[in-house]
Amino acid sequence: MKTIWKYPVLIMDEIWVYMPMGAEILDVQEQQGNICLWALVDTDKPLVKRKFRVFGTGKPVDLDYDELTWEFIATVQNKHVVWHIFEEYKE
């Protein structure tokens, strides 16, 4: 069954999220002071571990582009800080 799930995004350098295989990221926004990610998921699929990185505006972005590829997901404002979320994927 397809449905939309919400995942909290912790403000950490690296975030690992378990979601059904093939989940499609729909949006990332602030909700009641917390950063949340919404994804369209197929609940019949097995869970897989996905890696995200969070960077504040003006902070170093240390993404290793030699071995990994990073996809920009969203920019979201939380209080007085602007966060930029990227997801790792291997080609």
Question: Can you walk through the features of this model?
Answer:
- It is built from no helices and 7 strands.
- The chain has 91 residues and is mostly beta strands.
- The termini are far apart.
Structure keywords:
3-stranded antiparallel beta sheet; 7 strands; 0% helix; globular; 91 residues; 4-stranded antiparallel beta sheet
SSE blueprint:
Layout: E1 2-8, E2 14-20, E3 24-31, E4 34-42, E5 47-56, E6 69-78, E7 81-89
Antiparallel strand pairs: 1-4, 2-5, 3-4, 5-7, 6-7
What's a quick, concise take on this entry?
With 91 residues, the protein is mainly β.
Number of strands: 7
SS-derived structural category: mainly beta
Count, helices: 0
Q: What percent strand?
A: over 45%
Helix content: under 10%
Alpha-carbon distance between the termini? 28 Å
Largest sheet: 4 strands, antiparallel
SSE series? EEEEEEE
How confident is the prediction overall: mean pLDDT? 89
State the oligomer. single chain
Question: What's the Cα radius of gyration?
Answer: 13 Å
Stretches with pLDDT under 50, minimum 5 residues: none
